[in-house]
Amino acid sequence: MDLIANLANGFMNLFKAGATTFSGWVVGIIPLIVILMTAVSAFIKLIGEERIHNLAQTATKNVVTRYTILPILAVLFLGNPMCYSFGRFVDNKHKPAYYDATVSFLHPVTGLFPHANGGELFVYMGIAAGITTLGFPLGELAVRYFLVGVIVIFIRGLVTEKIYATLKAREK
């Protein structure tokens, strides 16, 4: 009998813990994301959508900017999953590498810009909870994630571009 009661209590405590976490998000991270989304949207409107598109088109011409600047701008301004739409500025032969670079940046950006990929917040917040428990600052973690993310997306873009070119050459 005690076993069944303990299982029932444990089951309910699981949902209580989930509700507590959800309540924290409702008063913490969700308003932050809404404000960040509003700010990014206003920024795009102030600069002008056409200027943003022209900047993206220019960024595709250079291998470095194609796999760093373009994915970063797309993720920051459009978020997941709209960031993939910047792929329309990239030549077909570079689209797989652009996609790889962009999708690879969706986690590292979360610490500094949580609006960019709400789905990754679960992962980042779990890591952040551990870092906070250890007494380390989150700002340093977020900046390191971001910088390492930029390096990784550039490498992934280059590697994927080479793999795609090799496979495409074999088709002929």
Automatic annotation (TrEMBL):
Keyword Ubl conjugation set for record: no
Transmembrane segments: 22-47, 68-90, 145-165
PROSITE patterns (alphabetical): PTS_EIIC_TYPE_5 (PS51107)
Keywords assigned by UniProt, alphabetized: Membrane, Transmembrane, Transmembrane helix
InterPro entries membership: PTS_IID_sorb (IPR004699)
GO CC terms in record: membrane
UniProt KW Membrane keyword: yes
One biological process term in Gene Ontology: phosphoenolpyruvate-dependent sugar phosphotransferase system
Domain of life where this protein originates: Bacteria
One Pfam family hit: EII-GUT
Coiled-coil segments on the chain, per record: none
Name this protein carries in UniProt: PTS system, glucitol/sorbitol-specific IIC component
